[in-house]
Design brief:
Oligomer: single chain
Shape: globular
Mean pLDDT: 88
Radius of gyration: 17 Å
Number of helices: 10
Order of helices and strands: EHHEHHEHEHHEEHHEHE
Structural class: alpha/beta
Strand order of the largest sheet: 3-4-2-1-5-7-8-6
Number of strands: 8
């Protein structure tokens, strides 16, 4: 029997995974399935950190807007409205499994100061020691960097490095990184393993989606940050969160970015 190996796992979920593509409203069934998997990993003894986008999309739905706002101040206000609803849903869903969650909102500039960086690391470690699952998001009402550039992709990599995670798993709306756009090329092939992030890999990375702000370009940047810190990154389709079990079992799922030797 294989000996259990406790892991510190960062899971990043994007807006496209948390919302229905046609209505842009919350995909409650998929969110509930993701929570059940993460709660199960927690109950197995793993330490889990969730980096979650979706505040803007949920805010758009709650306000009854027809589309995502275009101005920074509108995005910030929409994120503030959606963040409360997002955490309410997570707290309710995780609570059904008896798992305590916490909210951590911060801006990347806090990581540039040694004192605040140290406090943040202490908070993460203490929350995990308490057996809680930290749920992380950029403080979009204060900072606009992620609103414009990333959908939390890079934030998940920075968090992984910060807490010395064993792996980063990113859930998105495709099966992984393809050698060309699978939406326009039926012969596009999934790249199952990336040993090194080369200019060619960066070139084939795609653009952003509708409600989200990220895309494969930011995911490649995030993978570069994490793998440079010695952390493997796997990008999978968020439609079936149970694939996370396969990753932990060492199976080939999605696209694996191998860590660099430190």
């Amino acid at each position: 029997m294989k000996e259990f190996e406790k892991k510190r796992i960062v899971v990043k979920v994007g807006t496209s995974t948390l919302t229905h593509s046609n209505t842009k409203k919350t995909n409650i069934a998929r969110m509930a399935k993701l929570v059940s998997v993460l709660a199960d990993l927690h109950n197995m003894g793993h330490e889990v950190v969730l980096v979650s986008s979706g505040a803007i999309a949920i805010g758009v739905g709650k306000l009854g807007l027809n589309q995502k706002p275009g101005k920074d101040k509108e995005l910030q206000a929409t994120a503030a409205i959606g963040q409360g609803e997002l955490m309410f849903l997570y707290d309710k869903l995780f609570g059904e499994y008896g798992v305590v969650v916490s909210q951590l909102l911060f801006t990347t500039d806090a990581l540039q100061r040694d004192e605040s960086r140290g406090h943040l690391i202490d908070t993460f470690n203490q929350l995990l020691a308490y057996g809680a699952i930290p749920i992380v998001n950029e403080n979009d009402s204060v900072s606009i960097e992620e609103l414009r550039n990333g959908d939390n992709d890079c934030l998940s990599a920075i968090v992984s490095e910060l807490i010395e995670a064993d792996m980063l798993i990113m859930l998105t709306d495709t099966d992984g990184l393809y050698d060309s756009n699978p939406n326009t090329n039926p012969d596009a092939k999934l790249i199952t393993c990336v040993e090194e992030i080369t200019p060619e890999i960066e070139r084939i990375a795609g653009g952003a989606g509708d409600l989200g702000t990220g895309g494969f370009a930011t995911k490649i940047t995030a993978a570069n940050i994490a793998t440079s810190a010695g952390i493997p990154v796997t990008i999978i389709n968020g439609e079936k969160p149970t694939r996370i079990y396969k990753i932990l079992d060492g199976e080939s799922v999605g696209t694996l970015f191998l860590p660099r030797e430190k």
